[in-house]
Amino acid sequence: MPLRFDVPSGRRRPTRHWIVAVALCCLAGCAVSSTGTAAHPADTGSSPPAPALARSSARPSSVVGTAADGWHGTAVRVSRPRPSFTLADLSGRSFDFAKETAGRATLLFFGYTNCPDVCPTTMADIAAAKQLVSSPVGSAIMVVFVTTDPGRDTAGVLRRWLNQFDPTFIGLTGSPAQLAAAQKAAGVPLASAQQVPGGQYDVVHAAQVAGYGADNTEHVRYFSDTTVADYAADLPRLVAVS
Question: N or C: which end of the chain has fewer CB within 10 A?
């Protein structure tokens, strides 16, 4: 499966004001998207050169769809059930993903809070899309963010970061082995840490949001070029599919 990464642009993390601006922009008809393919650096300073890492802008063969599928994201070629894995939520409670999200439209993403680009913009885009759809649809959507950097993403750090976008977003963490098992279960490339000068490290991870319907089946994936309007168009369908 080809990896999908995003080029860091040095943008600051979006705030709630930025989310509202995105929503208003979308209502006005403009497209909002993340661009490029690469790794995410650990700090949020000026834009470093993109590291020489494997890159691909192609969708994995398992998620290539057609316009006839009707999704604004990328329809999966072979639908598969909601994955089963167990991690810890931010209160330290065991969280069985398949059971806790059963029967709910769910968006699942693996990333980390020090990511300067694709992670915050993806979370902001989803939050903005939830504001654009009807209240019943928005409240029916579960958004689960699984850290790929458990060493730095403590429960407090992850909760504060997610609250910038939507307090209802669920954060999960676990041991490296548990997180690897979760990524395998979800069918995304495994994240990896790479040392950089200064004693820091980068986390290279997949820029894919998996979309599960209320029927407990994965129907669609969203990549870094997905717009707020794309998410907003698909959310009602994820809620209604059965």
Answer: C
Enclosing H/E stretch for 131? helix 118-132
Q: What's the CATH code of the domain at 228?
A: 3.40.30.10
Instruction: Give the total number of structural domains in the chain.
Output: 1
Does 6 reside within a domain?
Answer: no
The encoded tokens of residue 172 equal: 């999960």
- 242 residues of the chain, pLDDT tens digit each: 333 333 333 333 344 444 444 443 333 333 333 322 224 433 333 333 333 222 223 344 444 444 447 899 999 988 899 999 999 999 999 999 999 999 999 999 999 999 988 999 999 999 999 999 999 999 999 999 999 999 999 999 999 999 999 999 999 999 999 999 999 999 999 999 888 788 788 888 888 999 999 999 999 999 989 999 999 999 999 999 97
Residue 194 and residue 201 in contact, taking contact as beta carbons nearer than 8 Å: yes
Nearest to 153 by CA among 175, 133, 136, 169: 175
Pairing assessment for the beta strands 201-204 and 192-195 based on DSSP bridges: antiparallel
For residue 165, being part of any structural domain is answered with: yes
d(CA 204, CA 227): 22
Q: How far apart are CA 100 and CA 204, in angstroms?
A: 28
Find the domain containing 193 and state its range.
Answer: 16-37+66-240
Q: Provide the 3-class DSSP secondary structure of residue 185.
A: helix
Q: Which amino acid is at 70?
A: G
Token duo for residue 9: 């642009």
Cα distances (angstroms) measured from residue 193 to each of 40, 169, 187, 201: 10, 25, 19, 6
